[in-house]
Amino acid sequence: xxxxxxxxxxxxxxxxxxxxxxxxxxxxxxxxxxxxxxxxxxxxxxxxxxxxxxxxx
Length: 57
Description:
Layout (H helix, E strand, L loop, with lengths): L2 H10 L3 H32 L1 H8 L1
């Protein structure tokens, strides 16, 4: 059984309330990853600001 099939099998056994909680959790995980990626990108830009300014000349 593939991962999507296994997830669907488990989700179908849940109540609507559990499905909503699972959806909220999935969204929170995605948002956490987006925040971490943004923080990493901002750190890279900040650490290399002078080099970027030099390249822009």
